[in-house]
Structure formats: C-alpha cells, structure tokens
C-alpha cells in the first residue's frame, strides 16, 4: 500500500478535530514568567497550544511534548521555536557583520552550526533569517539584518535558509526557517521602531520585497509577519500582502506567524474596534498562528459560531500549522530533536558543545578595515599596547542583540584576545577610560530592555579620573587600541537613535588619547553605521568589528596582528551625518544631480556637506592592495535571452596574500521608468597571493537587466547598459553594451 500523502494525512487528522482543538493549534506562546510549567502542560494536554518559543533545553521541552503526545486527545505534537538569529550556544557575529564578509560559505557555516546546536537542544524552528532592507541606521534593528542592498541580502537569505533547513526541515539536525519581518519593516519612517511604512509599489517590488521572496523560493517553511503598517494597513491584517502577494503571486505554502502581540495591536492601530474584530481581521488576512496573545483562543470560537469567520479560514490556518509540523518531521517522531532523557547533555553550556573555531573564522571574515594610515596595522607582536575603552573587556556586548542561548561568560573579550595573541612577547596595559555613556537616563533605558539582568554597569569613578588613567596607560605604550562604540542594547529592537555619534563620554576619551601623540587604533563595536567623521580624521587605523560573538577577542586580535588579513566590505553605506539619511548607493537617478567638482547651486545636495557617503557600500581595505583592469566584454551586444561575459584582471599589487570582493554593478542607461544609478548584480570573493593576478569573469544575462516597470511587470527593456566592476560601489571600471 503506498504511504499516505501529506495532504491525505492532514485531511484525515483534521476530520477528527473539534473546533476548539483546531483553534488550539493556532496558538504560539512564549515560555516565560506569565504561566507556570504546570499550567502550560495543562493547556497543552487540553489541546489549547500549538507551539511555544523561548524554552531551549530538551529537559524543558520534553514534558511539554509528553503533554501533547501522551495526554492530549489526538496526540498532535508541539513544535518548539526560538530566535536563533546569529548562533545558538555559540554566538556568531551579528547578521550585519556576517553580511560584511560577503562570504557565502562563512554565512552558511554560521547558520548550519546554529541549526546543529539548536536542534540538539530540541528546537524545531527559528524566527530567522531577518532580511529587512535597512537604509536608515537610526533604526536599531539594522544590526539584525544584512544591510541595504536587495541583491546581497537576497543572496544571503537563500544561503541562510538552505543552511538552516539542511537537507530538509525534517532532518533531526535542521531548523525550519521563518523569514521575517514580512514585510518592509526596515523602512519605518525616520528609523523609529514600530513607526509606519508608506512606500510606492515600484520601490517595494524593486528594493524591499526581493529578499523575502528569495528566502521563500529557497524553501523557507515559515514567514513572520511584520509589526508595521504597509501603506495604511497593518501587515497583520493586510489581505493584499498575506494572500494576494505571498500566497497567490509567490506561491508560498507554509505557516505564517504573527509577531509578538501583533494581533492585539490591531486595535491600537485603529483598524479593529476590539479584540474580536482584530482576531477576525488577522485570520481573514491569513495569519495562521497568533504569537503571544490569547485573541484567537478567546474570539475565534464565537466568530465561527456567528458566521463572521468561515470555517474554511480556520481550516486553512490549521492546515498550514499541521503542514509545518509534518514538514519538520514531528508526526514521524515528535521526539526527533528532543531525544531520550538519558542522552540529555549534563551541562547545556558545556565548553565541548561550542564551535569556537567556526565562530572565530566567521568573525575575522566579518571585520571591515576602514582606515590604515602609514601601515599602522597590523601591529607588531611585541612592545606595550595600551588597550582602553568601555568595550575592551565587556563580554556581554560581544554577543550583540538576539544572542539566543549564548552565555556572555563564554565570550572572549578583546583584552583576552590581545593577551592570548601576545603571550609573553609583549604587554597589554588596560584601562577602561570611560563608561559607554554618562547619560543615566540612557543607562536606565538600556537596562530596562528584556535582559535577564541589568547589563550596562557604570564605573562609579569620575569621568576625568578614568580618562587620566587611560592617558597614563597610553603614555607608557607604543600604540593605543581603543575599543569604543555602542553597548549592544543600543543597536536592538526598540533602540532607535537620533544621533549616530559614539556617545560623548567615549569621544572625550578618544580626544584625550589623541593628545598623547601615540598611534591611535580605533576598534569599533556597534550594530549600525555611525557618524565617524572625527574618528576618520583622527585615528591612525579604524577597524569596524561590529559585535563579533563568542570568539570576538580572538578574531579581532587575529586581524590587529595580521594573522588574518581583513577582507570585509560594508554591506551598508556610512552616512556623513544624520541629516544626510537616507544614504544608500542604489538610489534613483535625478534630473538635477550634484556633480562633484562643479558648483552645487540648483543641484540636489546639502550646501553644508558633501553629498557622497563617508564610506560607500562595498568599501573595505586590506593589508595588501589590489588593482582592477579595464573591463573586456565578450560582445558589444546581447541578443534577447542571451548572455555576454564581462571580465577584468584583478591583481594583488601589495606585499601580502589577501582576499577581496570583486563587485559587479549594472546601470540601465535609459528605460521607461527612472532606474537606479547602479545596482549590484554579482560579486566574487577572491583570494590572491602577493603579486598574483587572475582574470575574473562574470556572466551577464537578460535576467540581470530586468526590473519592475510602471505596470509592475518584471522585464528587461532593449537599449544600452553599463557594466561596472570594482572593489566598492564607487571605484569602478565601466563598459557599455546593448540589449537588442
Ligand atoms: C520580534 C521578533 C521576534 C519575536 C519573538 C519580537 O519582539 O519583533 O523579531 O522573533 O519577538 O521573540
């Protein structure tokens, strides 16, 4: 007899379910202080919970699975989810940092390792990847995404989904990916979290939607719905978004979960007059599971009975939830990731469970060298290094936001990293020098975030005393390394900023260090582009390390001492100031563009400041140098459906082996709608020995020339195109061809 198909299995199961049991499957609850374990197990046994999140050990999840499988009427298994965003027990660099590697193997390694660790802790699903395009660094969640570019973020979305889900979401070492936040969350007005999103359809289709689509096409089993409005209708009640676009146009077949409390928030948005209406709107839109609220549970039974919600809507949602459980292999074996109690790890945080080598490798690939005057870096392994700054010895900040089950005590600080690398060949003198901020209101705010315990600890000494101590350390040293930036809570959900400066307390420290005349290496730790004008002008070397994870200190020391030659490139533009935002490289062309070197009058510019970014998209230095030749095209024109090849010779012209990222951009010379000045359409990470050169060939095909026209049709139009190839988005060579 042939095995029963998924559809038949689910249909048979649903035929046995009562309305209440169906509605129970739509409830996704957070394990937290609100309900005792005993209460939760009772609810599960009564068939009133479909899945949970935030419980992260086999010991915690086994009794819940027992309650579902052994004590509920139909024995439908639970699933267990968690925000495994950039690591689980081992914390990898934050997503924005990983994007800076432009290294798809490194990014896949981080996601695969995270899935292996999290599934071994009984988790089935992650609320990741987060692929919201961000062009506004004021938004704290910029740190959680992969930057500003639709192509780069889409490539990463695909790689991440495949690495998380492995051979199949049913595999015991896989996590089902739920891509988030659908949709457009990164475009909140003014970069203020949870603010409205209002966007033209063309921009939406062209720039913001592609990464979600890429994740779904790569097989993501879930979608998490955004908290924001999309052109006047909250995503969680948006039938166009959830049905017409996601399911009908894109063919998504998977589970859609709301974000935390989002259905309740429909009343606050003012599209629902009460909880009953909110539940009706959300289920009608196609939100299958309600996260962390009780509205579905309370309201759906009455709504179905009164006929306000057709049974078919409930069935559609239940089918997706059961379908996801089926795909995760839970009907085959509800314990496939929980395992047997006898095999539980005696210590979930055991050192042996960490993947430090992988974390270190990804972390060093994720750093971006922004400045390096007179070969200040790499440092010699010898002499005396003064290490200063509030982030130099802060374990917790190395973790970045959404650090899953990572334990700060297991992270390596820069102080430890430098000492380990130097051994007895040199000396590190450490002085904290400043608090992250002296603004007590900000400290209180940061300590109020959802951390288990307050984590911004203020050194009670007067600022002047701390600076004096650091200056004294600097005077005795050959070089000063200053680890400064933001505490991790500053680049976090609900941590939007109006300023992008390094906080004043740290700037004062840097200024004082500068007066010593010692070479000043600034090591940045932060989760968003910052305003670095002062640092750029005053530092001898500037290294962006983001929040580098469990192995931060070792990985940064690898770069500082040249044991690894930095190869990262910015996945997001660094503006010159807050006033210049939005600053992104792929903006549309203008009728009155500013031309550098020409008078600015009556051109599009700010008269007080240059128009270009401080550091452009794609930028990053190395300890060696590279050159790129002019472009050779295989043909001057491309027939419809054809392809041509664009090649350059890239040479390592410096004294060291190194890696760089060769980037390919396309500019559509004229089209039926205004097109961007350029768009990334390909890239290649290349390792070259000192003196080595290599021809790098890119295929350019018609698909790379397509865009959404005024009717939102995706098509390429005949005419001229410029291919641009270079090592950042500004310094490029160009060649023209025609699409026939
Ligand atoms: C965030 C989501 C996250 C969810 C569950 C929400 O506050 O917006 O990104 O997945 O919480 O932890």
What does it look like?
- It holds the Pfam family Fn3-like.
- Residues 660-729 form the Fibronectin type III-like domain.
- It catalyses: Hydrolysis of terminal, non-reducing beta-D-glucosyl residues with release of beta-D-glucose.
- This protein has 740 residues and is an alpha/beta fold.
- The model has no long low-confidence stretch (mean pLDDT 97).
- An 8-stranded parallel beta sheet has the order 9-6-5-4-3-2-1-10. The chain has a 6-stranded mixed beta sheet with strand order 11-16-15-14-12-13, with helices on both faces. A 5-stranded mixed beta sheet has the order 19-27-26-21-22.
- The N and C termini lie far apart (56 Å).
- A hairpin with a 5-residue loop joins strand 26 and strand 27 (732-739).
- Helix 2 (19-25) runs antiparallel to helix 13, helix 15 (356-365) crosses helix 22 (552-560) and helix 17 crosses helix 22.
- Among the domains are: 356-579, Rossmann fold (3-Layer(aba) Sandwich); 626-739, Immunoglobulin-like (Sandwich), CATH 2.60.40.10.
- It contains 22 helices and 27 strands.
- The structure holds beta-D-glucopyranose (BGC).
- Residues 83, 127, 180, 224, 259-260, 493 line the site of beta-D-glucopyranose.
CATH topology of the domain at 356-579: Rossmann fold
Return the CATH architecture of the domain at 356-579: 3-Layer(aba) Sandwich
Helix residue percentage? 25-40%
Describe the main β-sheet briefly. Answer: 8 strands, parallel
What percent of residues are in strands?
15-25%
* End-to-end separation: 56 Å
Low-confidence stretches: none
Catalytic activity: Hydrolysis of terminal, non-reducing beta-D-glucosyl residues with release of beta-D-glucose
Keywords: Glycosidase, Hydrolase, Signal
Domain Fibronectin type III-like: 660-729
Pfam families: Fn3-like, Glyco_hydro_3, Glyco_hydro_3_C
């Amino acid at each position: 007899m042939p095995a029963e198909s998924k559809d038949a299995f689910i249909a048979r199961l649903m035929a046995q379910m009562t309305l209440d049991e169906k509605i129970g499957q739509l409830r996704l609850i957070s394990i937290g202080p609100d309900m005792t374990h005993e209460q939760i197990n009772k609810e599960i046994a009564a068939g009133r919970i479909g899945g949970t999140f935030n419980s992260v050990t086999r010991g915690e999840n086994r009794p819940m699975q027992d309650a579902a499988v052994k004590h509920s009427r139909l024995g439908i298994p639970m699933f267990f989810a968690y925000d495994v965003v950039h690591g689980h027990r081992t914390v990898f660099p934050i997503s924005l940092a990983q994007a800076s590697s432009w290294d798809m193997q490194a990014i896949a390694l981080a996601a695969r390792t995270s899935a292996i660790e999290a599934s071994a802790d009984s988790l089935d699903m992650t609320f990741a990847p987060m692929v919201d395009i961000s062009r506004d660094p004021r938004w704290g969640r910029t740190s959680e995404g992969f930057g500003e570019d639709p192509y780069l973020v889409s490539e990463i979305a695909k790689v991440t989904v495949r690495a998380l889900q492995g051979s199949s979401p049913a595999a015991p070492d896989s996590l089902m990916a739920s891509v988030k936040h659908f949709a457009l969350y990164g475009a909140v007005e003014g970069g203020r979290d949870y603010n409205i999103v209002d966007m033209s359809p063309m921009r939406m289709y062209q720039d913001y939607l592609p990464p979600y689509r890429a994740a779904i096409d790569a097989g993501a089993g879930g979608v998490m719905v955004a908290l924001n409005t999309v052109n006047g209708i909250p995503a969680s009640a948006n039938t166009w978004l959830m049905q017409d676009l996601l399911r009908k146009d894109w063919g998504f077949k998977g589970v859609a979960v709301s974000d935390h409390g989002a259905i309740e928030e429909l009343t606050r948005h003012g599209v629902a007059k009460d909880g009953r209406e909110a539940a009706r709107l959300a289920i009608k839109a196609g939100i299958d599971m309600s996260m962390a609220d009780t509205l579905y549970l309370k309201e759906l039974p009455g709504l179905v009975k009164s006929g306000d919600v057709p049974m078919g809507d409930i069935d559609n949602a239940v089918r997706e939830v059961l379908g996801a459980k089926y795909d995760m292999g839970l009907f085959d074996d509800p314990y496939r990731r929980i395992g047997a109690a006898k095999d539980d790890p005696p210590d979930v945080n055991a050192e042996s469970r960490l993947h430090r080598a992988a974390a270190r490798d990804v972390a060093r690939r994720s750093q971006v060298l922004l400045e390096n005057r007179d070969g200040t870096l790499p440092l010699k392994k010898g002499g005396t290094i003064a290490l200063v700054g509030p982030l130099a010895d802060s374990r917790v900040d190395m973790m970045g936001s959404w650090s899953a089950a990572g334990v700060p005590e297991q992270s390596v600080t820069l102080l430890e990293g430098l000492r380990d690398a130097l051994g007895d060949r040199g000396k590190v003198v450490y002085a904290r020098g400043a608090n992250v901020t002296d603004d007590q209101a900000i400290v209180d705010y940061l300590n109020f975030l959802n951390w288990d315990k307050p984590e911004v600890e203020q050194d009670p000494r007067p600022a002047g005393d701390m600076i004096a101590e650091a200056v004294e350390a600097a005077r005795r040293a050959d070089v000063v390394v200053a680890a400064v930036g933001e505490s991790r809570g500053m680049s976090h959900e609900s941590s939007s900023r109006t300023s992008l400066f390094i906080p004043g307390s740290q700037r004062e420290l840097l200024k004082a260090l500068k007066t010593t005349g010692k070479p000043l290496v600034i090591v940045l730790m932060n989760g968003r582009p910052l305003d670095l004008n002062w640092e750029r002008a005053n530092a001898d070397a500037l290294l962006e390390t983001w929040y580098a994870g469990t192995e931060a200190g070792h990985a940064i020391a690898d770069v500082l001492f040249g044991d690894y030659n930095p190869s990262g490139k910015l996945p997001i533009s660094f503006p010159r100031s807050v006033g210049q935002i939005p600053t992104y490289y792929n903006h549309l062309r203008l009728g009155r563009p500013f031309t550098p070197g020409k008078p600015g009058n009556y051109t599009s510019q700010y008269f007080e400041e240059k128009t270009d970014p401080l550091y452009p998209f794609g930028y990053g230095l190395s300890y060696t140098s590279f050159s790129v030749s002019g472009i050779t095209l295989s043909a001057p024109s491309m027939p419809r459906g054809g392809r041509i090849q664009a090649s350059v010779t890239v040479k390592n012209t410096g004294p060291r082996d190194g890696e760089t990222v060769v980037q390919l951009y396309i500019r559509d010379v004229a089209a039926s709608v205004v097109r961007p000045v350029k768009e990334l359409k390909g890239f290649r990470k290349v390792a070259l020995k000192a003196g080595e050169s290599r021809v790098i060939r890119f295929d350019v095909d018609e698909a790379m020339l397509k865009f959404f026209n005024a009717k939102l049709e995706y098509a390429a139009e005949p005419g001229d195109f410029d291919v641009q190839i270079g090592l950042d988005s500004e310094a490029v060579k160009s060649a023209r061809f025609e699409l026939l």
